Amino acid sequence: MSAPAVTRRTPAGRKPTRRNRGTQWLLFTALLVAVVAPVSGLWGVIDGRLWFDQATVTVAGTLAAGTLVRIRGLSAGLSFTASVAGLIVMLTLQFFPSTAVLGVIPTAESVRRALDFYPQARDAVLVQAQPVLSEDPLIFFICLAAGLTALMVYLLVVGLRVPALSALPLSVFLVISSLVKTDGAGLLHVGLTAIGYLVVLAGARLERRATSPGAALRTGVLRQGVLIAAAALTLMLVVPLALPGFSQGLMPQGQRLYLFGKPSGVNPVLNLGVNLRDRLGVTTLTYYTDSSEPLYLRTAVISDLGAKRWEPSDLEVGRDHSAENLAPSPDGFPAQSVPRTRTVHTRVVTGNYQSPWLPMPREAASVTGLAQEWGYNGGTDTMFSQAEASSRKLDYTVTSQVPVIDAAALEASSARLARDPGSATDRLPKTSTDLPRNLPKIIPDTARQITRKAHATTAYEEAVALQEELRSVDYTYSEQTPLEQGYDGNGVGVVAAFLKQKSGYCTHYSAAMALMARTLGVPSRIVVGYAPGRSNGAQALGSDGKQWSGYDLSPSSAHAWPELFFPDLGWVPFEPTPGRGTTPSYASDSPDGGPAPSQAPDTDPTRARTIPDANPSAEPSIPPAAGAQSSGNDDGISAVMPALLALVVLLGLFGPLGIRRWQRSRRIRSIHRATDWRDAVASAWEELLALGRDYGLAQDPQETDAAYASRLQDHLPDAAPEVQRLREAFERASFSLDAQPRRQLVPRGPASGIHRPRASRELALDEALDAALTDIEQGFSDAASPGRQFLARAWPASLLRR
């Protein structure tokens, strides 16, 4: 007894045709549009458009590599491998050409630089406000994410032939946008993604027809395809209107998503609203000081208020000295005429503090306990990481020198500034004096009104008048009003809105005073850092025998304040924000509206500076601050949790699909490799039973094979002939005693047994069984609802039963 001969068309993709090539490029275009559409949802999150152009080029190169292989008639597996290679080449060409062979083949140095990009991209996301600067490290990861999305979509559409599931990876960028943008992903981007998804579904169907010549599109299939497309379009356009995030932002109002872990440091680009609205009160660092008053700690300085984007000044100036060799900058610190008072020591224990900027008390003369990876900028009196050093669990001591500043000294400095403003400020950078272009009229007008009202005639009197007006009852401290009224950020437009609404928080108060002072001819800048914090009640004995008082700082301690420049005194801080920090003694308004009289030396270290020699002997002999401690295990867990969560989600979404595809591939390989034709038929029947379970048409335990096949024929009219012939082949194999090798049981005669009416040549038994299963699977899919199709492919029931 011999197995029947069968006929079928030539296998798909063996010989490229013009139609096939055109269809492959059409599918390439569809995939490109579908992947790039959700990536565009990051507009407004990243500054400029360079990142989008590079991401588009990366996706195009990735998909083009697979398409070029596919149109040569090679397998989907090889085309996917080519796409992976295409992604690697595109990333190397754009970001690491100098380290690559021929500019496109990555080397170990290329990989090292790619790894070095991670902490830089992380810091950009952690410390920058939106839009984040478009720089290579961040662009690299956007391109990598876009390329991986393209690979996943290509695998689902071309490799696994389940294009409906491509909606899952396509939605990733939309979800990210809905989380990080206060106004959500935007219906425009959701709509573009929906259109791209529909184009992919259409392109995948055309590609399937092109690689299966003679395959007619059934009327039922066409009708069902239209219904699926309509349902998908409705879901992607209508559902976002009812869900938070896609139109209004998913995070709680005023909060944001941190993809690289939540920072515990201060945002140095003046988007402190996020920090201030953190009500958890978790201590991120603790400091001890021998000062009689709590201290302001600074992290960064913003000088260029005329820039479109406000950012720390030392990003441009650079770090002049290592942490062990502090020296003053020549810019604006001729403080020799200011008598020195006493030395102040401050010990900072960072605990879980995470930021590239370290908190520093002003007037730093020396720092002990920091490695060379930290660099000091004398122009801003700030400390910044030079070599991606970790800011966690640091314990360092800063020695500061506190000069006397009083009203008399400020009045004398103001007189010099009035006599010769050019020479008094000639050593300052222009960014400290320049006004923004198109400065809103309300800013200089408000400054003139305030000073006229106070009868201020000198720079000092004008500064005090501005401070006291902003602290008056006419202005209200609020962290929510700017958020609700749309000026929760920084820039001259935000300041103008604040002066109109007269409600905001420290960012608005400090920026308003700094800009108004500049309109009056007084150089200014903004300092970002921490207000004095709250006492933790701890007392520690330093090596000098004095009691050092402890203070805790949390994200809500974040603060910003202005510094104004006075000749011979340097940069002098003021406090215009009501209810925050302390008003400097030299800036307190006297009852008659004039300056306050001279006072005793102020011990607040946020004062103008001179830097004497370091005093390394004054080291504290106190234990680390308990409130700032955290375990290393906690840090490790928090660092890997996002990756673990992403892995679990991916396994949940694509794990069952991958296992089921592997299971089917194993059975198909068994069909082709079986030496006994009965084993080949048994494997085909096993796959038929699995398909039935996946689509909710499982064989009942009491049901015979014949009865089950008959029931399937009723449910699958388009695939009924293949089911019938596979049943006949299975029954013959079950009762046949002929065990001759399969290759001897494939006579070439008239078509009989398993066959397809549209066939163009005879097929061996293994090819016939493979083709029958393909037709039967298509029949199951055509007869199923969209929901059943999704479940059958994403979470196949056959995996739960063997």
From TrEMBL:
**Region ranges (Disordered):** 416-436, 577-634
Coiled coil residues, start to end = none
User: Where are the membrane-spanning stretches?
Assistant: 25-45, 51-69, 76-96, 138-157, 164-180, 186-204, 225-246, 639-659
Q: Which Pfam families match?
A: DUF4129, TgpA_N, Transglut_core
What the entry lists under Gene3D superfamilies is as follows: 3.10.620.30
Matches recorded under SMART domains: TGc
- Which GO molecular function annotation, any one, does this entry have? peptidase activity
Q: Which UniProt keywords apply?
A: Hydrolase, Membrane, Protease, Transmembrane, Transmembrane helix
What InterPro entries has UniProt attached to this entry?
Answer: Bact_TGase-like, Papain-like_cys_pep_sf, TgpA-like_C, TgpA_N, Transglutaminase-like
Every Transglutaminase-like domain range: 498-578
Biological process GO annotation list?
A: proteolysis
Q: Which PANTHER family match?
A: PROTEIN-GLUTAMINE GAMMA-GLUTAMYLTRANSFERASE
Q: Any idea what this protein is called? A: Transglutaminase-like enzymes, putative cysteine proteases
Q: Which organism is it from?
A: Arthrobacter rhombi
Its organism's taxonomic lineage begins at: Bacteria, Bacillati, Actinomycetota, Actinomycetes, Micrococcales
